[in-house]
Design goal:
heterodimer; A: 122 residues; seven-stranded mixed sheet; four-stranded antiparallel sheet; globular; B: mainly beta
């Protein structure tokens, strides 16, 4: 079945980096963008950016440019998101989600990963 | 950036009752690219409605979306026990994609 499976929980110190993975299965990997979002408990999700797994092209939310890097590996159908210079405010659940690639419009996120909790603590 | 404001913050209702959730955008949402998601504790959001009024695959017909421009509504015609959760609206017509702060539907 169609699914996105993320890597496990991470605990990091301020200033460190974290890399979260998102492995796709059950569909054509290059036919869907992968978006990354984060969510602090009690708040709505925040969109961080997206990657086109086929071309490798990325778009980042302005506030994350220079600190977030998204990559993809078509041989393993896996997308990665790395956040550097971590601070306590980066403590959140991180999700990947897919959106169909099309030239005629935009789509909602129909499949989500299970989430990865990243805790930043001294 | 389009800001989405959801109301009310919390809706206290009984099973079988009708729920009406509102999502108001700070500017018109392009092509009515507005989605609704349901989130339960410890789970990822689940897509319910896309393009303002289309139900996603497998979503029961008690869930309905309506609205256009900057004003959107999610209606649950008769609440089932499994519908008590947090609901988010999201616009995907312009970048950055943005979400509302959520409406919690709780058991009265």
């Amino acid at each position: 079945q169609v699914q996105l499976v993320q890597s496990g929980a991470e605990v990091k110190k301020p200033g460190a980096s974290v890399k979260v993975s998102c492995k796709a299965s059950g569909y054509t990997f290059t036919g869907y963008y992968i978006h990354w979002l984060r969510q602090v408990p009690g708040q709505g999700p925040e969109w961080m950016g997206l990657i086109n797994p086929g071309s490798g092209s990325t778009t980042y939310k302005h506030k994350f440019r220079g600190r977030v890097t998204m990559t993809s590996d078509t041989s393993t159908s896996t997308t990665y998101m790395e956040v550097s210079s971590l601070r306590s405010e980066d403590t959140a659940f991180y999700y990947c989600a897919r959106e169909e690639v099309t030239s005629i419009g935009w789509y909602a996120f129909d499949v989500w990963g299970q989430g990865t909790i990243v805790t930043v603590s001294p | 950036e389009i800001v989405l404001t959801q109301s009310p913050g919390t809706l206290s209702l009984s099973p079988g009752e009708r729920a009406t959730l509102s999502c108001r955008a700070s500017q018109s949402v392009s092509d009515n690219y507005l989605a609704w998601y349901q989130q339960k504790p410890g789970q990822a959001p689940r897509l319910l409605i896309y393009d303002a009024s289309n139900r996603a695959t497998g979503i029961p017909d008690r869930f309905g979306g309506s609205g256009s421009g900057a004003d959107f509504t999610l209606t649950i015609s008769r609440l089932e026990p499994e519908d008590f959760a947090v609901y988010y609206c999201q616009q995907y017509g312009s970048s950055p994609r943005t979400f509302g702060q959520g409406t919690k539907v709780e058991i009265k």
